[in-house]
Amino acid sequence: MSGASRPQLEARLQALSKRMATVGVEVLVVTNSPNIFYLTNLRASAAVLIIGDSVRVLIADFRYLAIARMVVAGDQSLTDLEVVPVAGSYDETILGVFGRLGVARVGFEAENLSVRRWQWLTGRLNEKFIKFVPTDGIVEEGRERKDAYEIEQLQTAALLLSRVALDVNELVREGVSEREIAAEIDRMLYRIGLERPAFETIVASGENSALPHARPSDRRLSLGDLVVLDFGGVHNGYCGDLTRTFCVGEISERAFGLHRAVLEAHGAAVSVVRPGIKASAVDEAAREVLRRHGLEDMFGHGTGHGLGIEVHERPRIGKLTNNGAVDAELDTGMVFTIEPGVYVPGYGGVRIEDDVIVTEQGCEILTKAPCALTLC
Amino acid sequence: MSGASRPQLEARLQALSKRMATVGVEVLVVTNSPNIFYLTNLRASAAVLIIGDSVRVLIADFRYLAIARMVVAGDQSLTDLEVVPVAGSYDETILGVFGRLGVARVGFEAENLSVRRWQWLTGRLNEKFIKFVPTDGIVEEGRERKDAYEIEQLQTAALLLSRVALDVNELVREGVSEREIAAEIDRMLYRIGLERPAFETIVASGENSALPHARPSDRRLSLGDLVVLDFGGVHNGYCGDLTRTFCVGEISERAFGLHRAVLEAHGAAVSVVRPGIKASAVDEAAREVLRRHGLEDMFGHGTGHGLGIEVHERPRIGKLTNNGAVDAELDTGMVFTIEPGVYVPGYGGVRIEDDVIVTEQGCEILTKAPCALTLC
C-alpha cells in the first residue's frame, strides 16, 4: 500500500502535539481533508479527525467507512486509531465523541470550518463547559517541510510530469485546438502512470496566453502564437506542477525577447534559493530581472507556491506585503514552484514553471525538462 | 458566448433580492463561486460579489481580472456591474467597498465563509456600525429550480454523457485495469465535446465495486466481476452524472439478482417523481423495493442529489431525518439524480444512476442509455 509508514505518521503527530500544546489545546478537531490524509493516510473528501493525548478518532460517513476501516486496520496506520461512523450528521457525531471525554479546551481549524458549523458546535460544546478554540494552520505548519516519504512522492510526481513535458511540444501545431491539446495532455498524464491531473490543464494560445488562468477553448493555434501549457499530476496523493511556453512556427523577435526575459527571471529565482533566506527574496530575484527588462508590470502574480498534498500550499513565494501574508523563511525539505511569467494583453504571455526542493546547498530542480521556446 | 442572458441574470437577481428582504439584509456578500457564476456568468475559483439595491460590485484578483472584465463588458452581464481589483487581500477590498456605502445590515453566506475570515470582517464592519448577518443558502434556494437556459445546458450535458455511456461497455473486458478504463472514459468525455469530467471518474470492479466511492486502482478485471462505472461531464458549466453497472463475461445468478433489484428500485423512484411530493418519498420508493428484496441494509446512501452548476447541490433526495437536513418539496424545473445501489462487502456492488427533471406531468429522464447488465 502506498502511504507513509506508522513511524512517519507517529512523528507527524508528535510534532503536531507540540504545536497544540503551544496554542493551549488538548484536542484538535481536524476538518481539512488534506490534513487528515497527512495525519492518517486516509484520502476522503469528507471525514473528521479528533486527535489528542487521550483520543484518536476518525469519523467517516458511509461513502468512506470501508476505506477508513481498511486504512486503520493496516500496519501503516496510527496505533489505536478508532473509526467512528457518522450517526446523524458529522457535527452530531463530533459532539458524541466529546460526550465521553474529559477535556476543557478543544481546538478547531478556523480556516476550515464554516461560520454555520461553528455556530452549531460552539453552542453545544459550551453547554458541556468545553471551550472551542480557533487555531491557524497548525497542521499545515508541519506539512511545510516534507519528510522522506513525501519527498520521494514529490520527486516521482515531478519526474513523471517531466516525461510528459518532453512530448508535449509535438502537440503544439497550427490548426489544433486548445481543448484538443488539453485532452491529449490529460491522456498522457494517465498513460505515464499519474493518478490524475492535479488541476484543470491550461492550454492558452495567442491572446489567451495573456490570461494566467485561461480555460482551454476551441481556439485553434495559428502561426506565430505563443502557447502556454501548464499541467500537473498526482502521484500517491502528491502533486507536481509544470509550465512550458512554446511558439507555433517561426519565433518572432518579440516572442523570443519575452521568453528570454522570463527564463532569466526563472534562473535568477532558482539561484537564490537556500535555507535561511526569505521566500520574498526568491520572488524579488525574479521580479528584479523583469523590472530590468521593463516587464515588471506584466508580471502580476507571485513567483511560486508550495507543493505537496495540495497543488497550492505553504510556503507562498511572493512579494512582501503588509496585509499579514506570511513571508516564510526557507528551510530544507520545503518544496515549491518557481514560475515567473509575463502577460501582454492582446498579444500573449510566457510562463516557465519548475518544482524545486530546498537542500542544504541551495535547491534541486525536481522537474527535468528543457525550457526552450521550441520550434514546432 | 455561452452563459445566461442579461434578462435571465436580472431575473435571478430580482428573486434573490426578495429573499434578501425576507431575511432583512440590504446587501449580500457572495463568496461561494458557483453562486457567483449563477449570478454573473463569471467562472472563477476565487472572486467576491457584493450585491444589493445600491451596489453591484465584483471583486477579482489578478488571475481572473481580465476574464471578469470581459464578462462584465459583454451584453450577457448584469447592468452596471463594476469590477474592482483586489487591493491587498479580498477581505480588505470588501471592507473598502463598504467604506463608501451607507448600509446597516450586510448578509454573508454562513456556509461559505470560514471562521477565520468572519472574525476579521465582522470586527472591522462592527467598527463602521455595520451588522454582519449570517444567511443560509439564499442564493442556492434560487438555483434549486432551473430556468430555461439552465435546463438546456443540463439536457445537453446529459445527452453527451449518454452517448459516452453507449460505448463504455466495450471497455469492460477481462484483463483491463480500472485505471485504464477510467482514462479512456475521460478521453471519451472530452472527445464528445464535454468540457471536463464533473468529478474523478469511478471504475470499481469486483470487491472494489462494494465501495460506493472507490478510486480507480490497478486491479485488472476478471471473469464474473461486477463493474460500476460512474462518470460525469460538464457542459457550459453545468453537470451531468451517470452510472451503469456491467458484468465481465457470464452473468451469475447472484449478480443478475442484485442488478434486477436495483433496476426495480430505480424504476420505482422515477415513477413517483412529480411536483408536490417530498424528496424523501422518492428515496422511500427506492428503499422500499430494496427492503422487499432484503437488501435495504446494503443501500447506505441517499437515492439522489440535485445537479446543476455543482455535481452535488439541492435538492437532497434522501431519508427523512431529524437532524435538520431539508426534505424539499419537489417542483417543476428541479434536476437531480436517481441512483439506488446495493453493496455487498467482499463481493461487489451495483448502482444505476440517471438524471431527471421534474415536469408538470411527473419527470423526464435526461440521460438516455440502456441499463442492462450488458454481456461484454
Brief descriptors of the model:
homodimer, Creatine Amidinohydrolase, Chain A, domain 1, six-stranded mixed beta sheet, four-stranded antiparallel beta sheet
Model description:
2 copies of one chain form a homodimer. With 376 residues, chain A is of the alpha+beta class. Chain A has 2 domains: 138 residues, Creatinase/prolidase N-terminal domain (Creatine Amidinohydrolase, Chain A, domain 1); 218 residues, Creatine Amidinohydrolase. Chain A is 36% helix and 22% strand. In chain A, the strands form 5 sheets. The first copy, chain A, has a 6-stranded mixed beta sheet with strand order 4-3-2-1-5-6, with helices on both faces. In chain A, strand 14 and strand 15 form a beta hairpin. In chain A, helix 4 packs parallel to helix 5 and helix 9 packs antiparallel against helix 10. Chain A is elongated, with a radius of gyration of 23 Å. The mean pLDDT of chain A is 94. The interface between A and B is large, with 46 and 46 residues.
Quick recap of the structure?
The structure is a homodimer of 376-residue chains. Chain A has 376 residues and is an alpha+beta fold. Chain A has helices at 6-23, 33-40, 62-73, 90-99, 115-127, 138-143, 148-168, 178-191, 253-272, 279-292, and strands at 27-30, 48-52, 55-60, 82-85, 105-109, 131-135, 196-197, 202-205, 226-235, 238-247, 304-306, 313-317, 335-338, 341-344, 348-351, 354-358, 363-365.
